Amino acid sequence: FQLKNGFPLNTIAGTAVDLTKIQLRAQDPNQRSSYVEQASFGPEFQLFEDTVLSTTYVGNWGRKMNRLRNANQGLITGRDGACPVVSFPYANLNTVSSVDTLNTATGKCGLTGQHAFLELATNDGSSDYNGLEVSLRRRMSKGVGYAVNYTWSHGMSNFGDNLTAGPLPQNGYDYASEMSNSILDIRHRFVTNFTWELPFGKGKRYLSNGGASDVVLGGWQFNGIITLQTGSPFTVTATDRSFTGSNHSAYANCVGDPFSGATTDPSKYTSTTPGQFFINPAAFAIPADGTFGTCRPRSLHGPGIQLADLSLFKQFQVNERIRIQFRTEFFNAFNHPNFANPGSNISNPGSFGKVTNTINPILGAGSGGPGDPREIQLALKLYF
After folding, report:
1. Parallel, antiparallel, or unpaired for β 117-141 and 23-27?
2. Over the Cα atoms of the chain, what is R_g?
3. 72 and 89 Cβ atoms separated by less than 8 Å
4. pLDDT at residue number 1
5. First to last CA, the chain
6. CA distance 57 to 105
7. Whole-angstrom Cα distance, residue 282 to residue 280?
8. Cα-flanking dihedrals φ and ψ of residue 258, to 5°?
């Protein structure tokens, strides 16, 4: 069947069905193929015989991307005083199709009836990414090799993907208000890695005569990966006051400067002291009855990441064919806490703007990641 002809009654029949427990899925019958356009260009300069500098523009544009909405979300068609009059599109997915949300007994707004969730997938989302990449690379030469990389970029989209972001918009009839930062928008990212073979021992610049000094001081290698980046986007949410049904996002109203009086000091925004926050609660408000929040989704960025992974290797050459490598690896070597995004529901003033945890593991509990404390790993490797 097609939704334009109405939802078939024989699919949902009987008064015993609780429509609020139902989730139905529909697909646009005029499905269009998603596609991505990519472009990159830039010069590369050889500074020395072993060192290269490159600058590259990178663009990525997604079109006709898959996104979801609640096709049975109510549409505000009028007002009764301060309360909205809401109409729902599919009569047999709602016990009441048109609702005057004003409760004359209490004078307050409230949605009545049961309203099912009709998840509609359409291929009409868009994403844009523009970035500048700068890279300085030195191949391994004279015991030293490194790569220094910096990216300045901005990613935008008018949807959240189905797996890693909140995919449902606030208002399924107003996708224009959904265009904002992409969930993957990292404005600045700096990553460098290096390898340094210490110049001691046999075949090196110092103490190259072998013997005890070579056994103790020779064969050492120091390595590192340093990562610095700005935070990931988050959305300031609020209690839904639109009365257009469930299964859609609800954003706060933006009414001021979110960083006025805020702090970037982790010792303050992680404390329970009143008045210390990562974002200013006074800059946001709960929307009025029958309205949607004015804040854009993913409009703010949380704390960034500072991470240093270091390692020290020692080579023992047993003979021409066999060598042993002793490895000491320090993940998050300086035990720097990398905090998650702050509480961002303005309806919960006790936690709003406060950070209560570090970044979750990348692949679930126990998988590790930048939010973990320092870890030290010792290993022996046999090469033959």
Report:
1. parallel
2. 28
3. yes
4. 62
5. 66
6. 62
7. 5
8. -65, -15
Burial 287-326 (b: 16+ CB within 10 A, else e): bebbebbebbbbebbbbbbebbbbbebbbeeeeeeeeeee
Q: What is the total residue count of the chain?
A: 384
Task: Report whether 241 contacts 292 (CB < 8 A).
Answer: no
- The parts of the chain modelled with pLDDT lower than 70 are 1-16, 210, 213-214, 362-368
Decide if 358 contacts 350 (C-beta within 8 A). Answer: no
Q: Which residues pair with 266 in a beta bridge?
A: none
In a 13 Å sphere around the CA of 16, the CA atoms on its Cβ side amount to: 0
DSSP 54-93: EEEEEEEEEEEEEEEEETT--EEEEEETTEEEEE-S-GGG
Residue 202 in tokens: 């046999």
Give 353's Cβ-side CA count (13 Å radius). Answer: 26
Question: What per-residue confidence (pLDDT) applies to 175?
Answer: 92
